[in-house]
Amino acid sequence: MDTRRGPGSPYLLLTVTMLLWGSAFSSSKAVVEHVPHAVAALLRFGGGALALLIALSLFGGRATSGVPGSGWRAAGAGVLGVFAYNGFFFWGLSLAPSLDAGVLIPVMSPVLTSGYLLVTGRERASAGRLAGLGLGLVGAGVFFLGAGGSSGGGSTRLAGDALFLLSAVCWAAFTLAGPRVLAGIEPLRATTYATCAGAVLLGVLAAPDLGRVDWGALPAGVWWNTAYLAVGAAAVANLLYYRGVGAVGPAKASLMMFTVPVVNTLCATLFMGESFGALQGAGALVLLAGAVLAVTRGRLPGRAAR
Question: Which pTM was predicted?
Answer without folding.
Answer: 0.81
